[in-house]
């Protein structure tokens, strides 16, 4: 039986067979409970599909627009050196360059050498002499800053510290690993970074152990 009701003037004095038939087969006024449930479920599924589509588009859009999430050409050694992370520092001194559009720190593995043509799918830079580091701290996502006092990266949020090539110092801070790296290539002396391909940073290294570049100073910036 639907959720409809006769007006008082329509109410019969006796439930005749015609009245009973009308009550069983008549269309209810407004929405029935079944219709309401169906429409609510349909609206919920439609909203979920819309959110899924928007999220997928948001994930793919940087690649489609050649922004973050795609490949960006950063330039030759002179152009890269012209974008220092800290004013007054340089790649040759062991300090990084910084590119906000790529969210990338660029370091020379050996500061006495320049770029070498080649590719680095893991961002380590053995073939290119370049290391491309994601600006995001692996702990909670803050942006580590480069400190020209000790030549380490220091996270201002929770104190995690990394050497100049992004290796995490085991005893200092809660980050579980070193800074993540972007794939990159050098062709004709021009560095390009693929921010859509990321390799997780290595496990932390204890102070004094091989694989960690010592600080230039006992004090830092934080």
Write a structural description.
By secondary structure, the protein is of the alpha+beta class. The protein folds into 2 domains: 17-64; 71-199, 3-layer Sandwich (Rieske Iron-sulfur Protein). Helix content is 21%, strand content 21%. The chain has helices spanning 17-25, 33-64, 77-81; strands at 71-75, 97-99, 104-108, 118-120, 130-134, 145-147, 152-154, 161-162, 181-187, 190-199. The chain has a 4-stranded antiparallel β-sheet with strand order 1-10-9-4. Strands 2-3-5 form a 3-stranded antiparallel β-sheet, with no helix packed on it. A 3-stranded antiparallel β-sheet has the order 6-7-8, with no helix packed on it. The radius of gyration is 31 Å and the shape is elongated. The protein starts with 16 loop residues before the first helix and ends in a 23-residue tail after the last strand. Residues 59-65 have low confidence and may be disordered.
């Amino acid at each position: 039986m639907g959720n409809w009701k006769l007006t008082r003037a329509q109410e019969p004095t006796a439930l005749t067979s015609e009245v009973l038939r009308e009550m069983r087969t008549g269309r209810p006024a407004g929405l029935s409970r079944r219709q309401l449930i169906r429409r609510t479920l349909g609206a919920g599924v439609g909203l979920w599909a819309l959110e899924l589509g928007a999220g997928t588009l948001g994930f793919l859009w940087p690649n489609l627009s050649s922004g973050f999430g795609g490949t960006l050409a950063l330039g030759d050694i002179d152009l890269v050196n012209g974008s220092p992370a800290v004013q007054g520092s340089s790649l040759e001194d062991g300090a990084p360059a910084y590119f906000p559009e790529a969210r990338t720190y660029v370091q020379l593995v050996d500061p006495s050498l320049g770029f070498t043509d080649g590719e680095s799918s893991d961002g380590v830079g053995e073939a290119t002499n370049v290391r491309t580091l994601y600006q995001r701290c692996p702990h909670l996502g803050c942006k580590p800053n480069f400190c020209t006092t000790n030549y380490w990266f220091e996270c201002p949020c929770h104190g995690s510290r990394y050497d100049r090539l992004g290796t995490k110092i085991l005893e200092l801070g809660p980050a579980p690993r070193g800074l993540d790296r972007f794939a990159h290539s050098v062709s004709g002396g021009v560095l390009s970074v693929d921010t859509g391909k990321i390799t997780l940073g290595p496990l932390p290294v204890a102070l004094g152990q091989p694989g960690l570049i010592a600080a230039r100073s006992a004090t830092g910036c934080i």
